[in-house]
Amino acid sequence: MNQDWRAFLDSFEVQFPREVLRIKEELNRKYEPTAIIMELERQKRYPLVRFEKVSGSEFGVVANTIATRQRMAMAIGVDEKELPTAYAERIKRAIEPEIIENPAFKENCLTGPDLDLTKLPILTHFPIDAGPYITAGLVTAKDPASGADTCGYHRMQLKGPGKLGVSLHSRQRLWEYHRRAEKMGKNLEAAVVLGVHPAVSLGSMALIPYDQGKFARMGGLLDEPLQIAHCTTIDVEVPAWAEIVIEGEILAGEREPEGPFAEFTNYACYRSTENIFIPKAIYYRTNALYQCITPGMCAEHNTIVAVQREGDVLKALKENLPNIVNVHAPLSACGLFHCYISMKKIAEGQPMQAIMTALSVDHNLKHVVVVDEDVDVFNESQVLWAIATRVQADRDVHIIPQHMGMGCTLDPSTDDLSRSAKMGINATKPLANFASSIEFHPEAKKKAQEILGNIGY
Fold first, then answer.
1. 71 within domain boundaries
2. What is the pLDDT of residues 18-37, one digit of tens each?
3. 371, part of any domain
4. Nearest to 428 by CA among 397, 398, 387
5. 255 and 272 in contact (C-beta within 8 Å)?
6. Cβ contacts of residue 392 below 8 Å, gap of 6+?
7. CA distance 294 to 301
8. Which of 7, 62, 207, 344 would staple 323 via disulfide (CB 3.0–4.6 Å)?
9. What are the residues whose beta carbons fall under 8 Å from the beta carbon of 446, sequence distance 6 or more?
10. Contact criterion met (CB below 8 Å) for 362 and 411
């Protein structure tokens, strides 16, 4: 598989030319590119967008690369409907990465007095934002204890030509690696990677033990070794086909305010770990493209989270329950907080087992709904219908109090310790003595479809 983001962009445009939008007019990097993406979002349109001219920068900007399931499925060579299942199966495999010498991103370098982050088209997205933000930066680093690599998205505020603010608010791998380095009195060497193949983006979401590397799991997703390259000024490796690589370190023992920022919840987030990243060098390909992920509650920000959530929950459920049909993390809940599970129930206790299993997979999940196999979990109206007609709250709704549950730091409803209540809803029918659902006569349904199709309806 070609792991070059540019090759993916070109291939996608050849196959789906109407799904690529090129904006040739020069745009102000403050608000204007984001306004176009959000207006398209309002129209429920999600084209891959190439902004060819952004004020004050020689780099073109690409947005919406991972805004649809179709593009992520295409990136790993599967059908869209198979994406969560394929993710769940492949991410379990580890294929060790392959080192590439002389990667393309080392064609150009800014260092010393020439190092200037403002030369990159770092966008200011919303009026609430504290400033310009890198939003598609995959931060790569190594565990000081085990040497395991990590690679994940973290928002980064432009503080000046030689400084970025970064929040490690997920409290997961990078936060823990920095904590360990800080305990040793060391800065954590890290690189910010921009412009990567969608399979790399999807693989970065993997939830795996902290002493195991993510690059090997990305290889499992690609079904071949991920091609990586050594950085020059730090002892870190990065995806070899990156467009832009910013090498530097996250400082130990230093903090300064970062944020607010328009987060995926559609609220301004003032919470931050307030870390500081100092670059040592900026490397970039000739005619490099700058990747942007539009923040706020938009498809590109949340769809990848939903796919990862579905895959991980599906994997955990199928290890414990043989009769799971499907899992969906809806964008209405930011792709993160709700999980809908359909199953062919054969014992009354199984929905509760599914609820507890799903909640144990990821602390960000708040509400889990289990429905029968006749309900399409990707059709939210059907899920709500099942809740409305199959649930009695005193019997079927189960609540874990807030003081007992860990939540998402970016969820504005959590408390100061980021704790969240959890809720499970059993919206399945009893195994016996329940009303039958209405069904169409199959032959009449087929004939109706033919008649309406013939007259253009």
1. yes
2. 999 999 999 999 999 999 99
3. yes
4. 387
5. no
6. none
7. 6
8. 344
9. none
10. no
CA dist 21 and 13 (Å) reads 10
Burial class from Cβ neighbours inside 10 Å (0-12, 13-18, 19+) for residue 153 reads buried
Helix 299-320 and helix 83-90, axial crossing angle in degrees, nearest 10:
60
> 295 and 344 share a domain?
no
Distance, CA of 139 to CA of 123 (rounded, Å): 18
Residue 445 lies in a domain: no
Question: The domain that contains 147 carries what CATH number?
Answer: 2.30.110.10
Residue type, position 414, single letter: T
CATH of the domain at 421: 3.40.1670.10
Cβ atoms of 422 and 284 closer than 8 Å: no
Neighbour count for residue 222 (Cβ, 10 Å)? 22
The whole-angstrom separation of Cα 340 and Cα 370 is 6
User: Quick one: 59 and 113 in the same domain?
Assistant: yes
Indicate the pLDDT class of residue 457, thresholds 50, 70 and 90: confident
| pLDDT single digits (tens) 131-183 | 999 999 999 999 999 999 999 999 999 999 999 999 997 678 999 999 999 99
- Indicate yes or no: pTM above 0.85: yes
* Residue 125 sits in the same domain as residue 228: yes
Range of the domain at 292: 5-299
Tracing tokens 């109706």 back to the chain, one arrives at 448
Tokens of 279: 């670059």
C-alpha 275/C-alpha 55 separation (Å) is 29
| Residue 306 included in any domain | no
Residue 170 has a pLDDT of 64
For 99-151, the DSSP string reads E-SS-GGGGEEEEGGG--GGGS-PBB-STTSSS-EE-S-EEEEE-TTT--EEE
The total number of structural domains in the chain stands at 2
